[in-house]
C-alpha cells in the first residue's frame, strides 16, 4: 500500500503534529508501507528517513492546493492522510477545502483531527467541514470522538479513535543524572521539578511559575526546568512569563532550556524528580508530553481531566489538581517534595508502553486504511 501523509510542518520545524507525523510515518514504513510525506517548503534540511519527504508546498493557499493535487497525481497513493491542525496552516481556507477537493479528484481521504475539544468555535466549524468531506476520520481521544460524533451523527460509522504516542522516548539510562542535577543547581535531597512542552498560554506556564514561587519560599533548594521554547510569534506572552520568572525567586531557580534535541530532553526528564503539566483545559491522552513523562518513569502533577482517563493513565502516578488554580498546584508540589523517598521512586512503564507504542498506533491506523 502507498500512503501519502500531508502535514503543514515537519522536522526540523517545531511542531508537535509534525513530530507525530514523523513518528507515524516511520512506524508505517517499518510495517512495509510505501510512505510519502508532503510538507511546507523551505524550512531547513530534513535528515534521511525510511520514507520519502516532499517539501514542496510554498503556501497553503489555492495555488498550493493545486500544487499538492499535482504532486499527488504523480505519486498516485492508495490513501491520502491529512493532519490537522498545524502552525503552518493558520487560517487557510484552502486546506479546509482540501478533503473535498482531493476526494473529487478520486483520492481516498483519511483525516486526523488532533485538537477538536480545545479549539474555538471557528476552528471547530472548519474541522467539522473537513470531517464531513473525508472518507474516514481519526480522532486521537474519546472526548473528541464523542463531540464530533454528536455533530456528524450520520457519519459515526466513519469515525475512529487512534491515540498518539510519546513524542520523546527514553534515550539511555541514569548515567549522568547527578551531574545534570548539579548543573541545574539542585541541592542534595532537594526536588527538581520539570515542565516539558512548547511554552504557550494553554499549557498553564504562568500558573506553574506562580506556584513554584511559593514552593521556592519553603524549599529554596528546589529548582524548576521549563524544557521547551516560546512561540516566536507571541513575544508579549514570553515577556510576561520572563517577568514572572525574574520575580519568582533567586536567579537560576527557574530555567528555560529553549529548543533541545530529543536525546537532551530525555536526559533532563531522567534527571528530574517529577513533571508538572498544569494544562488549562485538563489532562488528556492527546498530550504527547504527558505520555513522554510517564514513559520516563516520572510521576506527573497535572490538572483534572474533562473526561475519564484510560486505566493505564489513571493510576497513582498522576497527582491531579484543579484547572487554573496556582495555589492548589503549589500545595501539590510541596506535598510531593515532602513525601517519602519511596513514594518518589520511578516505576516500570510496561503497561503504558504496550498501550501507547508507535508500532501499535501504526497497526491501528492501517486498520482504518483497510476500511476504505
Can you give a write-up of this model?
With 372 residues, the protein is of the alpha/beta class. The protein has two domains: 2-165 and 357-369, 3-Layer(aba) Sandwich (Rossmann fold); 177-354, Rossmann fold (3-Layer(aba) Sandwich). It has helices at residues 16-30, 62-75, 93-96, 98-104, 121-133, 142-151, 177-183, 205-218, 235-247, 262-271, 288-295, 326-338, 341-344, 350-355, 358-369, and strands at residues 2-6, 34-40, 52-57, 79-84, 109-113, 136-139, 159-161, 192-196, 223-227, 254-256, 274-277, 300-303, 318-321. Strands 3-2-1-4-5-6-7 form a seven-stranded parallel beta sheet, sandwiched between helices. Helix 1 crosses helix 15 (358-369). The chain is elongated. The two termini are 12 Å apart. The model has no long low-confidence stretch (mean pLDDT 89).
Amino acid at each position: 500500500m502507498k500512503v501519502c501523509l500531508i502535514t503543514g510542518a515537519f522536522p526540523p520545524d517545531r511542531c508537535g503534529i509534525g513530530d507525530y507525523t514523523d513518528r507515524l510515518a516511520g512506524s508505517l514504513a517499518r510495517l512495509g508501507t510505501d510512505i510519502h510525506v508532503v510538507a511546507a517548503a523551505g524550512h531547513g534540511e530534513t535528515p534521511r528517513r525510511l520514507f520519502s519527504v516532499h517539501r514542496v508546498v510554498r503556501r497553503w493557499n489555492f495555488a498550493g492546493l493545486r500544487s499538492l493535487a499535482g504532486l499527488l497525481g504523480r505519486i498516485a497513493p492508495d490513501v491520502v492522510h491529512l493532519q490537522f491542525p498545524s502552525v503552518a496552516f493558520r487560517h487557510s481556507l484552502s486546506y479546509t477545502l482540501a478533503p473535498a477537493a482531493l476526494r473529487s479528484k478520486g483520492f481516498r481521504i483519511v483525516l486526523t483531527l488532533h485538537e477538536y475539544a480545545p479549539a474555538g468555535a471557528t476552528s471547530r466549524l472548519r474541522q467539522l467541514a473537513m470531517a464531513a468531506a473525508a472518507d474516514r476520520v481519526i480522532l486521537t481521544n474519546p472526548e473528541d470522538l464523542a463531540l464530533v460524533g454528536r455533530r456528524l451523527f450520520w457519519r459515526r460509522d466513519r469515525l475512529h479513535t487512534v491515540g498518539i504516542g510519546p513524542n520523546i522516548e527514553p534515550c539511555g539510562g541514569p548515567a549522568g543524572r547527578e551531574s545534570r542535577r548539579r548543573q541545574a543547581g539542585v541541592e542534595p535531597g532537594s526536588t527538581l521539578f520539570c515542565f516539558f512542552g512548547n511554552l504557550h498560554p494553554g499549557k498553564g506556564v504562568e500558573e506553574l511559575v506562580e506556584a513554584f514561587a511559593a514552593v521556592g519560599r519553603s524549599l529554596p533548594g528546589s529548582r524548576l526546568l521549563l524544557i521547551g521554547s516560546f512561540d516566536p510569534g507571541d513575544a508579549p506572552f514570553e515577556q510576561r512569563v520572563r517577568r514572572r520568572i525574574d520575580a519568582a525567586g533567586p536567579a537560576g531557580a527557574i530555567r528555560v532550556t529553549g529548543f533541545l534535541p530529543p536525546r537532551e530532553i530525555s536526559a533532563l526528564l531522567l534527571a528530574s524528580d517529577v513533571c508538572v503539566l498544569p494544562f488549562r483545559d485538563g489532562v488528556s491522552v492527546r498530550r504527547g508530553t504527558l505520555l513522554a513523562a510517564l514513559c520516563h518513569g516520572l510521576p506527573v502533577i497535572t490538572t483534572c481531566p474533562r473526561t475519564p482517563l484510560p486505566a493505564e493513565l489513571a493510576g497513582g502516578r498522576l497527582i491531579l489538581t484543579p484547572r487554573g488554580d496556582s495555589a492548589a498546584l503549589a500545595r501539590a508540589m510541596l506535598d510531593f517534595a515532602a513525601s517519602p523517598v519511596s513514594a518518589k521512586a520511578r516505576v516500570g512503564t510496561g503497561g503504558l508502553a504496550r498501550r501507547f507504542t508507535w508500532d501499535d498506533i501504526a497497526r491501528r491506523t492501517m486498520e482504518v486504511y483497510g476500511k476504505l
